[in-house]
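thread: overnight batch results

M.L. [08:02]
morning all. the overnight job finished for the chain we discussed friday. pasting input first so we're all looking at the same thing
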Amino acid sequence: MDLSSFEFIGPEPGVLGSGTTSMREMFRGLEKIEYVGYDPDAHAGPSIILPSVADGSACTDTSFMFAEMSHLELVDLHGFNGATGMKMNHMFEGAFQQKDKQNRVIMANIATGAGADLSYMFAGTADRPLYIKDVSLVRVGTGDFIEGTSASVHIPTDLSYLFANCPVLTKVELDTVGSGREAVLSHMFEGTAAHDIDARDEYLLDGKAITYDLTDVGIGGLAQMDFMFKDAFTYDGFDIANSYVRFATTLDLSVINEENEHSYGASTMRGMFYCDFDIEAGETTRNHMAKIDISGLVGVQPLNGIDSSLAFMFFGCDNIETVGYNAESSVVLPSPWDIRGVISMTGMFAFCEKLTNVDFIDACTSSIRGLTGGVNMAAMFAGDPKLATCNLTSSGAFTNPDTGATVGSANDMRWMFAGDAELDEVDLQGVGTRLVPFQMGVYSDVAGHRDRSPWRASR
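M.L. [08:03]
and the structure it wrote out:
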């Protein structure tokens, strides 16, 4: 189907969608189509050839446009900017059902207007997953939020569940994606490489390396990155040794300061790599990714109405062994990492059965910023039977301008190291206890809750 010369009615003939406000479900159910793009020579099978200029500047709705194209193998979309509030949700629902094809998605300069909705754009379901294997996105979902005349109208660009339930997704390259202010990236890759993949599909993952290269993703300020990889990588047959998730940035971190910090980074990363399993029932499902580099994530600052949280961020990641700042660490942290907006680290590294060493500087800094409640560190390292050393010190880089304090306070330390039988050395000089109730912590002074940090303990 050659639409390269197709002219929609509008002010710019030949520009796809220039005068068309909706293309919802336009090609839905064309099961034989194998290629959607611009190059008539790119694929030999049945194709939809789009106009070479496709900014869709007036179009507001392409939801379900290519849905249920079960034989789709290759999508190449670029320049489809869309209007403010563009709806592209569920655009490819039910597509990519041919398991033994390469099934690739290439997109550039897509949905760059404010408040675009790309949620579930390539998402599958438990009953009908999408068999996409290779993804390359550049400048996708880069618009800021839409703010109306009333406080109730506040619509961010939404990329939630973008590739959820794509079980055999093994290569992902994102560059400047979800980079608008307050972008929503929650559950973006939920359920990829999951343990409950159909047994008939396991050969598609067996021995395969899974690589995620994410550059300048969610860096526009106050991005929501909750549960971004929830229940992902729980299948244990992939090539764990050569797999990784890596966040990188082209930003000059040295220019980020108190005045402009809300223009960068995330508002919350709660449960980013969280694995959901029933502990009491003895379930053994875990996230098996062994290399997670988040050094390209800028910082975490509070968004109005949303608590900034790192709670359960690596909960159930059973192959991470070290946390620190050098490239060899299993989890590579940003340096510096300004998390003064974080109020919860509950269960952040809980049930990481192979974790042995942690070096996490300036973890407890929210009260320095002026947030009065402190940081919840309950069960932060619970269920880590091999944890031997834990260094939670302060660099002194962050200072309260009123008090001069460089160390914030926890507010709950219950079960912080519960079950960590091999714990030999703990340095909590970067964790204050002024806000820890007496009945919770042995390091509080009940007469006025005097902060007794720094302190250090070892066997």
